[in-house]
Each structure stands twice: as C-alpha cells, then as structure tokens.
Amino acid sequence: MTSTGARGDTATEMKNIRDITALGSSVNSIYKELIQQINAVTDVELYTANAVFVWPDLSVVPRFTLDLSSYYSAQANRIKFSAGGRPEKPINDDVAARTRNIITVLPRTSTVDNRTGLVLIDSLFFNGTWETPFEQIRTKSQDFHQLGGSVKQVEMMNDDRYVNIKRDDVNKVDVAELSFKGGRFSLYIALPHAVDGITDIEKLVVQPGKVQQLFTDLINVRVRLAIPKFKAESTLSPNTPLEDLGMTRAFSPSLANFGGIAAADLYISHVLHTAVLEVKESKTVAAAAADINIPIRTGFVMPPSESFVADHPFVYFLRDNQTGQILFQGKFSG
C-alpha cells in the first residue's frame, strides 16, 4: 500500500526488494485479486482488512486514497489527536476489531504525534478447523528436546492418521502437511533430522526457491503423529532488514519520495509487524479460537507404518495451497 504512493528511486527500491518490478503497473490489480480470493474463502475464516489513518491537516493526493480503496479495500480515517488514551487508541481499537481482540496494541504509546503524516494498517485473520481434528483426550505432556541439550515438558497432540509427509535426506528435514477443512489451507511442519538442525533449516528457507520445495512430493502415509499444542506471539520491527535488502531511501527524511501520497516531505519512520498463531486440537487460529467437543473415534484401523514426532525445534508454515502464498511462518523451540 505504501509503495503505491512512492515515486522515483524510492518506488524502484520498494519494488525491487519484493521482486515485482517485472509486473509493472499490474501489481495492484494482482494484489486486489488475491485479497478478493482470500475474503471469498468459506471453508475457513480468512480475511484481510486494511486501513490508513491520516494527519488531520495533511492534504492527501486523491488518487492515493482512491487506489487504496479500490485495490486494497483500505478505509481512510483521520488521526484523532484529541482521543482519550492518546491518538494510538482509535487505531489500536480498529486493529483489535479486525483481529478478534487478539492483537490489541500495534502502534505503541507515543509513536503517533504531530509529526505523523500517516499510519497504514494491514491485518490478516485466519481461523481454521482441522480436516481431521485431534482428540483432546490424547493430548499429554511429553519431552521436548531444546537446543543446548535441555529437555522441557510440552503438551503434545497425538494421533494415528494418514498424513502427507516426505523424508528429505538431502536437506536433512522431514515435512508433514496438516490440512484444514476444505483442503485449500495447510499447516506444514519442517522438522530437521537433528535436534540442533533448526539453524540449517532457517538458512535453507531463505534461499531463493528453496522454501517452495518443502511443499512438493509429499506422499500420503499412515503415521504416528505427535505435534506440540502451542501459541506463538511475536512483535518485530523490520526496518533494518528492509534497509539491508536495499530499501533505504524510504526511511531517509532527505531522500524519500512519496509524492504520490502528498506534497509534504514524507518518509517511513518505522514499520511494526505483530503476529499471533495458536495451534490446538480443534482449530488453528491466527487471531482467535473457539473450542469444540471432539468425539473419540472407534473401529478398526490399520496401525501406523511410520512416525512423525515433532519433539525438537521446527519451522512451520501456514500456507494457501491454491495460490502458494505463505500466510504465517515461524519456528517453535519449546
């Protein structure tokens, strides 16, 4: 959304780090189509909600707000400096409403002042029911081997089921796919062969094209499955990584060119990314959750032929299998 108002070398740098230069002027239309696809999903709860908050006296280029509304469905609001609880409160209230009150603080106190021209908000909500839920009665405390040799007790969800997996002896990692209702979205777990192999996996997934290889050539096998029940929360400031990738002008008060937003001398002061992901028996949520009672299955089934036990640090991906987009990505270290 921000790059829509960038001009000159600032726009070039922002396009280059996202590898979208070849898309030309069609990039906004592509994002619009992707957002529409996400918001149209019915088997899981998934939607994106964007907004822009503008300094009351800033004269914004009409085309900018029109493009944000048309391509990104972003609502335009004025920053309320007179708001009780400082101007951050109305912005955070908006974020909380869009993420079911899971993310309640995005702009922190004292980050919005009379020097702030705009605050752009991009939120994504996911709430998915497993294609095959885990039985709560089989969740139990088990050993989880952490880096450095220590062992921690974590709640592990257990089952015997058919799962798409692959054993990658070249990259020394096993991959399991846990599908959500409808099959379009899945949680992939990349489990290194070695207890201390997480660093090698992290280095692997940042190499061009390598992360997509994790999602190919999986085979449906009946396995003894055990994965942690966990909630991950992170708040990151990617200013420095973005600059390291080559996006430097946008952060410079003297070099930034956001003439497509306003005639004022605008630059990006900071970027803040907050994510919450919870994995549990009945659902995986990236914002909110609701438990359901799961009956115990009965009847004869074939015993598992293999095991996939995530009892040491691993990387996970919440992925849209139709578009190939990774919605959430992280690691669990116990």
From TrEMBL:
Instruction: Return the similarity comment.
Output: Belongs to the serpin family.
Q: What is this protein called?
A: Plasminogen activator inhibitor 1-like
Entry's SUPFAM superfamilies? Serpins
**Family matches, as Pfam families:** Serpin
Gene Ontology MF annotations: serine-type endopeptidase inhibitor activity
Q: What InterPro entries does the annotation carry? A: Serpin_CS, Serpin_dom, Serpin_fam, Serpin_sf, Serpin_sf_1, Serpin_sf_2
* Serpin domain boundaries: 1-333
GO CC field: extracellular space
